[in-house]
Design brief:
By secondary structure, the protein is mainly alpha-helical. Helices cover 77% and strands 0% of the residues.
């Protein structure tokens, strides 16, 4: 059970997170300062830095949590599943848990708007790609452990994760530019793209 002190700390962190994302999505990431975020919650800059290392840290706080949940879901998949199947099912079957993780931190609508802000802000997009690469390396090591192979000697774990990550990035880009910007739509879009993965890699694409 949370103590009063723990509850106050959690509420302060959540308030800072929500204020930051609101400011980033309304006036722009580059235009927002740490002082403005702290002021919006009526705390000091020093208090902000007790919870977050900086603007980038708070911008990706929710996404970092959802990625950690996905890594845990991959690790928990049944051992008899093939690697790509484990990745697919961890994503699709874990979707409700991901949505709950988002909703427990910030309104889902705000999270969706922040996704578009990341996609349209060069500094954030570069950070997103860098962070995604680190997450992919973690997942590759999880797959290697599941399959009993050496990730540094066997290229297959990293290759599998690179392919899966590519599908996720294509889905994200399509989702960010589509009119259907609901959270469920990215799940549907990603599932559709994963279904086409085999033909995209080995099929003949020529029309006629």
């Amino acid at each position: 059970m949370e103590t009063l002190r723990e509850r106050k700390k959690r509420r302060t962190r959540e308030a800072l997170l929500r204020a930051a994302l609101e400011l980033f999505t309304t006036q722009g990431y580059e235009q927002t300062t740490v002082d403005e975020i702290a002021e919006a919650v009526d705390v000091s800059q020093r208090t902000f830095f007790r919870y977050f290392a900086g603007k980038e840290d708070v911008a990706f706080a929710v996404q970092e949590t959802t990625e950690a949940a996905f890594v845990a879901a991959v690790r928990a998949r049944p051992p008899q599943e093939a690697p790509m199947q484990a990745l697919r099912q961890a994503f699709l079957e874990g979707w409700d848990a991901i949505r709950e993780t988002v909703a427990s931190a910030v309104p889902v609508e705000l999270y969706l708007r922040m996704y578009r802000t990341i996609d349209s802000t060069p500094a954030l997009l570069a950070a997103h790609l860098r962070r995604s690469a680190a997450t992919e390396e973690t997942i590759a090591r999880v797959l290697a452990e599941r399959e009993g192979v050496d990730v540094d000697a066997d290229p297959r774990p990293r290759l599998a994760v690179a392919v899966f990550g590519g599908v996720i990035r294509v889905s994200e880009r399509q989702w960010c530019t589509s009119e259907d910007f609901g959270l469920e739509s990215i799940r549907t879009l990603t599932a559709s793209y994963l279904d086409q993965l085999g033909s995209a890699l080995t099929g003949n694409w020529r029309a006629g």
